[in-house]
Write a structure and sequence with these properties.
Length: 871
């Protein structure tokens, strides 16, 4: 009802400027009010717009005596529908092209508003003029002038009133009295000047009216959009007033022409002022953002220095909070730790700022409860940075609303304190400025939180460094001893396997000799499986005489019905006797007369009579009992060896991980010393520390490679299969190796096919493979170029790395993908490395269901090709 009332009251002055016997006016302020109401409070207010428009039109038409009451009622209903549709279309286009925030933020937003208003006003003007013409409220020859006046009136109303209302809505609730006095004096000055220029009779025509334009645009520079829009509304009203009363520069032969001239002036003035005010406000916002970014960079720099020089954890946290308040201008900065009690409460550790008393009165939790949905609790629970742009509107702060109002806080942000998977707590920031934390600022705060968490971790582990060093020495000695033991075990295992292989070869040799000397079991049976012949060797071997077996079935005599492993031999013998051509060979258990079971390998062929009919089966058998036993022993030995190898790989992975932590500490503290943060260094000290850091990095790289190959061999490494941007990933790897190519003055060429976009796979492991191939290509190329190509083949994405280096011989290609194999070996080798890179690449590509191929000629370079599946 309030919106309908405002609409009605704003319409009454506007109707005083209407054309005779019509309701088409020069400036229709309700159009701007209706659009602003729907933008600020949603489209659900459209009934209020409809009601206000209906009341306005019915009142004007009845008071002016335009048409009969029934005509006025029908016209009012249809015109109100058109005005409502105008507001809804304007709101839809505004949100579509400017955004859902009810404000003009960019320099081109006023022009977009003008275009959207032109479209939406056309709907209302067409529907209104058509309605009044059809209903018969005025003759058809007036439709053109009335439509143009109607359309320009609605357009001017939106261009003048909508930016004014949006600007006032975005103003502070209580401006300073000094600013209010200055703005009031300025508006009085503008009004007096505009009145004399726009109502006084002048011979210079409409050109004199535009002298007011610079005065209207002045507040866009020093005040802001609100005062500018107020000035525009004031000047536009005076201009229309002068045109209606035939005063001022807008005097043409007819009132309608004068109004059109005044409407054009008001629209141009509103559009120019809105555009300039928005552009200046946008620039001020960017300058303000740059200022905040500079302050936050200072905060990050000072806090990083505090982390480096810190000796005490609480002192470090307090200093960081103090720096954030003093340098960045936050009202409150605090560090809290997460308690692992039943309530999942948080404990303030350090804080600074004039509003720090807020912490002593607020209860915060990081659990899923009403006290855990603020920025700090949510950050600790989720491990992600959180922003509350407006604490008074944020549902997570409803439980603390009274405290927020009392303290004056409007926005808040929090970042986690997390390092190496351990969540310590969070650092929170509060300010009285709404929407104060931008993405660029949050990036710096997140980095600050990460650095502070690592500082906490460093302080807590510094006291353990001596113990860690002793543990490293002890672990190194134990590792050396275990490696020696494992080496000896592997040597013994290899010897046992070689002996088993020799035994297997001897068994096979004896088997061949027996076959060559006809020392084999030769057996004949008829189609029913009954024995018709058994040679002497078979009789001696099985312990039967020929008379004891002739005519008897093989099953139950020399063949058991059920094998030890559970196989049905009765069915197998039946199928062999009836279809020997389908069972040309088989191995099965056989029974000797004394009941012992032996394994015999049988070779079968059918026996036919002269007419070609199957009469039986001829089987030649050889004893393979010893061979079976040897195979079983080999399987056991193989399983034991593989189990021992997995144990070795798991051990190496564990020990490599344990070694990385102190090496990272050595590298980190050496870097701090080289930065001269604790104090200046002489050249010899810098040189020695550089050697220490390089050696530590080399050892860390070796341990990382050992860890990867150990994880792969232990079956502990898994890869993801998610889509990622392949061209972007390739370009990131190219940027990483570009300094190496420039250092050797090599040309690095990239050729990515246009149809390459995304790849399903593990992005980090793909980067590891590609980085290793490019690094090797640059390392072994002294002149020329390295070329990377990426193309698509049916079912595959193909990536090739070609160099113009020394090339690889065929002998070396056979062992290139084995661990610890290098082309450049010996004490005088030119290139460093562990010999694990290509082995890891091969294993990773295999795990990703791909293939890696090599094509190389000595002296002509090499081409490594990786094929990854892509449906």
């Amino acid at each position: 009802m309030l919106v309908a009332g405002v609409y009605y009251l704003a319409a009454l002055p506007g109707m005083s400027f209407a054309l005779p016997q019509t309701n088409a006016t020069a400036i229709w302020a309700p159009s701007g009010i209706a659009l602003s109401a729907l933008l600020l409070w949603g489209r659900r207010l459209w009934p209020a717009v409809t009601l206000g428009s209906f009341l306005t039109n019915i009142t004007v038409l009845l008071q002016a005596g335009i048409g009969t009451p029934h005509q006025a009622l029908l016209a009012s209903v249809l015109i109100s529908f058109g005005n409502t549709l105008e507001a809804l279309i304007g709101r839809f286009l505004f949100i579509r092209y400017i955004g859902d925030a009810p404000t003009l933020r960019r320099s081109h937003d006023p022009l977009i508003l003008a275009l959207t208003a032109a479209v939406s006003c056309t709907v209302a003007a067409v529907m209104g003029v058509t309605t009044m013409t059809v209903v018969g409220l005025f003759p058809g020859q007036l439709a053109g002038p009335v439509w143009l006046t109607w359309w320009l009136g609605d357009l001017a109303g939106i261009l003048i009133i909508t930016p004014l209302i949006l600007a006032i809505h975005g103003m502070p609730a209580f401006p300073s009295s000094r600013r209010l006095l200055i703005e009031s004096l300025f508006l009085v000055t503008v009004g007096i000047t505009a009145f004399f220029l726009l109502t006084g009779n002048t011979p210079h025509g409409t050109a004199i009216a535009y002298l007011i334009l610079p005065l209207v645009l002045v507040p866009a520079i020093w005040s802001g959009p609100s005062l500018t829009q107020l000035s525009v509304a004031l000047v536009a009203g005076i201009a229309v007033y002068g045109a209606v009363h035939r005063q001022g520069p807008f005097q043409l032969p007819s009132v309608h022409s004068s109004l059109l001239l005044a409407q054009g002036f008001a629209s141009v003035l509103a559009l120019a002022a809105s555009t300039l005010a928005t552009a200046i406000a946008e620039r001020k916002m960017r300058e303000h953002a740059l200022s905040r970014m500079y302050r936050n960079l200072q905060v990050l720099t000072r806090c990083n220095a505090a982390v480096v020089h810190a000796k005490d954890e609480h002192q470090l946290l307090q200093e960081v909070c103090q720096v954030a308040v003093e340098t960045a201008g936050y009202e409150l900065a605090c560090v809290v730790y997460a308690e692992h009690d039943e309530a999942k409460s948080v404990r303030p550790i350090a804080y600074a700022g004039p509003a720090e008393r807020f912490l002593s009165r607020v209860r915060v939790s990081w659990g899923d409860n009403e006290y855990g949905w603020g920025t700090i609790g949510t950050t600790i629970r989720t491990g992600r940075p959180v922003i509350a742009a407006d604490l008074l509107q944020d549902p997570g702060y409803h439980v603390w609303r009274d405290l927020v109002i009392e303290s004056g806080f409007r926005s808040s942000a929090a970042v986690p304190l997390q390092a190496h998977g351990t969540m310590y707590g969070a650092i929170g920031f509060f300010t009285r400025e709404p929407d104060a934390f931008k993405p660029s600022e949050m990036d710096l705060l997140v980095e600050l939180g990460a650095n502070l968490a690592h500082g906490i971790l460093t302080l807590r582990t510094r006291a353990d460094n001596a113990r860690l060093y002793e543990q490293v020495q002890r672990y190194a000695a134990e590792l050396e001893q275990r490696v020696q033991q494992r080496t000896a075990e592997l040597q013994r295992e290899v010897a046992r396997r070689e002996q088993a292989q020799i035994s297997l070869q001897d068994s096979e040799r004896k088997y061949r000799e027996l076959v060559e000397n006809a020392n084999s079991i030769i057996l004949k049976m008829d189609r029913n499986g009954c024995i018709t012949f058994l040679n002497e060797f078979g009789q001696r071997f099985l312990g039967y005489t020929e008379s004891e077996l002739l005519g008897r079935n093989v099953v139950g005599t020399i063949v058991p019905r059920i094998e030890t492993g559970g196989r049905d031999l009765e069915r197998l013998m039946e199928e062999t006797a009836t279809h020997p051509d389908q069972h040309t060979s088989n191995e099965n258990e056989n029974l000797r007369r004394d009941g012992t079971r032996v394994w015999i390998s049988w070779t079968n062929r059918p026996i036919h009579d002269r007419e070609g009919r199957l009469t039986g089966c001829l089987s030649v058998g050889n004893d393979i009992t010893a061979l079976k036993q040897t195979q079983a022993q080999l399987e056991v030995a193989k399983e034991a060896a593989e189990s021992a190898d997995r144990l070795k790989s798991a051990f190496m992975a564990t020990m490599s991980h344990e070694l990385r932590t102190p090496l990272n500490s050595i590298i980190g503290f050496t870097g701090i010393l080289l930065q001269e943060l604790p104090g200046p260094l002489n050249s010899e000290q810098r040189n020695q520390l550089g050697m220490v850091r390089n050696a530590a990095r080399h050892l860390l790289a070796l341990i990382n490679d050992v860890l990867d190959i150990s994880k792969i061999e232990a079956g502990q490494l898994t890869v993801e299969r998610v889509p990622f941007d392949l061209p972007r990933t390739i370009n990131q790897v190219i940027e990483t190796v570009m300094p190496l190519a420039r250092e050797k003055r090599l040309q690095l060429v990239t050729d990515i096919a246009p149809d390459i976009q995304k790849l399903d796979g593990d992005q980090r492991r793909f980067e590891q493979v590609l980085l290793n191939l490019l690094s090797n290509a640059i390392k072994f190329t002294e002149q020329g170029q390295v070329t990377l190509r990426c193309a698509r083949e049916p079912g595959w994405v193909v990536i090739s790395v070609r160099d113009t280096g020394c090339g690889i011989s065929e002998q070396d290609q056979a062992t290139l993908f084995r661990p610890f194999r290098q082309l450049d070996t010996g004490l005088a080798r030119k290139h460093e490395g562990t010999g694990l890179g290509l082995a890891i690449c091969k294993r990773l590509v295999d795990i990703m269901k791909g293939r890696i191929e090599l094509s190389s000629k000595v002296g002509e370079g090499s081409v490594f090709t990786v094929r990854l599946p892509q449906p």
